[in-house]
Amino acid sequence: MSEALKLKPIAFFPGQGSQHVGMAKDLYDNFRVVRELFEEASDATSLHLRRLCFEGPESDLLLTENTQPALLTASVAAFRVAETERGFVPSAVAGHSLGEYSALVAAGAFPLASAARWVRERGRAMQLAVPPGQGSMAAVMGMEDEVIAALCAAGIDAAKAKRSSGERTDVSVDCVLSPANYNAPGQTVIAGSVDAVAEAIALIKAGIFAGKVIPLSVSAPFHCALMAPARDKMSELFSAATAAETPKALRFPYVPNRTAKLTSEASVIFELLVDQVDHTVQWKQSVAALIARGHTQAVEFGPGKVLQGLAKRIAGGIEGAAFTCSGISDSKTLSEWSTG
Questions:
Q1: Catalytic (active-site) positions
Q2: The model's pTM
Q3: What are the tens digits of pLDDT across the range 204-215?
């Protein structure tokens, strides 16, 4: 049997945006390990995560500092159930943005309690990094990566020109625009100052750049240079990590968002998580790299099907790629899934 055929499925973990009120409730009701995880994460964050995840209100769950520990806990819970009930053992793990923390908890790099506390601070720091209304994001479809780069440069130039002329005086942050997420072929999210994003949107709508664009309703411009204060906060938190929290030898290799390269090196984890805050999430490149190494199957752990959809689009852009991605988020999807 070839090495490729021996490979087990990859474990994928979603990022912010997949959360919803009621997530993981079925797992909580049916599995003791999930109840224990929720208690552990709640104690670490001083949040009532069970109530937040199962009852909301949605407005509270959508607060970034609440979303991140809640989604982390729900995702890790789904993985633990598959691990204990189905004997699931992945060949590697990967997570989109926040999901990278879930992946690393699953791989045994650090405890859930520590990760939950860190991502709550991460969410709070991201929210505070940019004043309300000063940053934004947009999803751009139908453009190659090099065209996205040109679009961002043009958006910055146009925004700077309006600032210099005095036409726009309502933006106080640096003029920034860059790719935030390379999600799939022809699907990229851009982030930056509100005026630079607006200029990029205008350029697309005017037909100067061919493609489609959807402004996103977000609380902050994630994964761009404006997140530097949040980056500094994460560096501070990791510098204060105890011996028990310092990344341990990984049970399975993982794919960092920052490098899109499979690694088992624990010593680089904190550095990569710091870099991740204000740099592009290379999800498209990460999945493509896994496919190139012969991985043909993935399972998404956590609410939603975002990564399953992206995986299909990524594989579809690779000639000869045979790649499937299923999901486990509750007892029903668990019962439908098997290692066979």
A1: 97, 223
A2: 0.96
A3: 999 999 999 999
Name the residue range of residue 158's domain: 135-219
pLDDT over 90, % of the chain? 93
| Residues 185, 300 within the same domain | no
Among 203, 219, 235, residue at a domain's last position: 219
What are the structure tokens assigned to 206, written together? Answer: 């005017």
List the structure tokens of 37. Answer: 């995880």
Same domain? For 25 and 104 the reply is yes
At 67, which amino acid appears? T
Contacts of 253 (CB under 8 A, 6+ apart): 91, 92, 93, 107, 262, 263, 264
**H or E segment to which residue 278 belongs:** none
Q: Where are the alpha helices (DSSP H) in 174-267?
A: 194-205, 228-239
| 310-336 per-residue burial string, b: 16 or more CB within 10 A, e: under 16 | bbeebbeeeeeeebebbbbbbeebbee
List, for residues 2-16, the tens digit of each pLDDT value.
343 467 899 999 999
